[in-house]
Amino acid sequence: MATTAIARPRLRTAARMAVVAAALAGASPVAATPAYATVGSCTIQALSDSSSRAKCDGTPPSAYRAFIVCMGGTTRYGGWFFAGSGSWSYATCPVNQFWIDFGVQINP
Question: Are 50 and 98 in contact (CB under 8 A)?
Answer without folding.
Answer: yes
